């Protein structure tokens, strides 16, 4: 059966001498594995459309275990993501996050559009990468169905007014001063961090330049978000972020 879908390549694995198996986030069918025959041969017409990040219109033949990629029209290669180390690492993290969390053969257009928009914005970004990735993380995990509860205390519903609050990963949101003892592994959070989280959740990815966030706060929130995401999708770590840590330690953003 022949099928068509837009898709973004998340991952590639070499198969035999000249072929590869690519993992694609397709708009119509969610995550699919596509066999690209001869994609390592020079001048093969599948080369450009089977690179990670590439966004294309694909034509597949749907086999028993695989989608066989017949052809495709490249819509965007997101080339700038390969030219800057921060863009490359954060972009790879976005692909790994999608690969780890989306379901096979089940479309999720909201997440597809978020990834597409994310790669587009990241491609054009000129700095402030941490703010971008933090906004992406909180939007992504919310769209996936784990939107953190930030308006009131998750447990008792009390208004969040200030002191001694924590972000509780296991409860999926903020615990007030009276409830902090319900989660001894929670992360201390103050009102301005809470405000920042909400701002990042509700501001579109291409409007983040409108405000500034203190760098220390961003590091703390990023750390909390990564742990919250890992817990929510039942994963231990992200390879892309582990690699990135050595660079981060050398400074810069
Ligand atoms: Zn409470």
From TrEMBL:
Pfam families in alphabetical order: RecO_C, RecO_N
The DNA replication/recombination mediator RecO N-terminal domain, residue ranges: 1-78
GO biological-process terms attached to the record: DNA recombination; double-strand break repair
Cellular component, GO annotation: bacterial nucleoid
Assigned keywords, A-Z: DNA damage, DNA recombination, DNA repair
Signal peptide: none
Family annotation (InterPro entries): ARFGAP/RecO, DNA_rep/recomb_RecO_N, NA-bd_OB-fold, RecO, RecO_C
Task of the protein: Involved in DNA repair and RecF pathway recombination.
Family of this protein: Belongs to the RecO family.
Name of the protein this chain belongs to: DNA repair protein RecO
Native species: Acidilutibacter cellobiosedens
